């Protein structure tokens, strides 16, 4: 449930275990091979968040949850990722490959998982121990929709003498990068023209959430959200089960709970999930 999950959000921001060098050689097989069930070999997780962690929190439990989070990302299981995200750093990485969740989902072509992680503030340009980024992993496996989206969101096409243009079908990857760059420019120009300052959802405060709620025609539920201190970070964790089971949401009609679930999904993914 949402309010049980949120209490652990600040417990495990950064872990101190060092990730071991990855053994993948860039032959195009590793990302797809990773989509299996967690076999317990992933080992310890490294946190790239800026939280301080909790000295009383069981390190073994942090490792287990972190492995589950990366495994869920490998499989593109967003509902499972939503349940686990606030218990680990979004940029935690596994020891076996040195992959973050974004690298795992991008390499396997799970666009919805990638969208969710980007919305949650995942680092687009973080590298694994041999220099691969999420964009490079997506390009290597020719996941062009993921390549285009990551570039649109600001992913670097070159990192430390590695270029995304050398992976996958080079012509198709180059075209996807060009589309992403054009969309990035269009978004920047539109924001300048509207004279608005973009604020990531995960950074929304309670007022921002209430303003969003009013724009969606559900301002009558402002008190519910304010009483429960729901900010952007918490909004991303609310799922259909929370809306249907938590007492605080029972004053919403079934129709409004369903509509709110869809609106939260649109924020979580950047688009409605059926589009």
The main sheet orders its strands as 1-2
Please write the CATH class name of the largest domain: Mainly Alpha
Broad structural category: mainly alpha
SSE run: HHEHHEHHHHEEHHHHHH
Give the overall shape, derived from the CA principal axes: globular
Could you explain how this protein is built, in words?
- The protein is an all-alpha fold and 275 residues long.
- It folds into two domains: 2-193, Ankyrin repeat-containing domain (Serine Threonine Protein Phosphatase 5, Tetratricopeptide repeat); 201-269, DNA polymerase, domain 1 (Orthogonal Bundle), CATH 1.10.150.50.
- It is built from 14 helices and four strands.
- The strands form two sheets. It has a two-stranded antiparallel ribbon with strand order 1-2. It has a two-stranded antiparallel ribbon with strand order 3-4.
- A hairpin with a 2-residue loop joins strand 3 (158-159) and strand 4.
- 39% of the residues are buried.
Q: What is this entry, summarized?
A:
This protein has 14 helices and 4 strands. It is mostly helical and 275 residues long.
How do the strands and helices of this protein lay out in sequence?
Blueprint: H1 2-5, H2 30-33, E1 45-46, H3 59-75, H4 78-85, E2 93-94, H5 101-107, H6 111-119, H7 134-140, H8 144-152, E3 158-159, E4 162-163, H9 170-194, H10 206-215, H11 222-227, H12 232-235, H13 240-245, H14 254-269
What attributes characterize this protein structure?
275 residues, mainly alpha, Serine Threonine Protein Phosphatase 5, Tetratricopeptide repeat, DNA polymerase, domain 1, 2 domains, two-stranded antiparallel ribbon, 14 helices, 4 strands
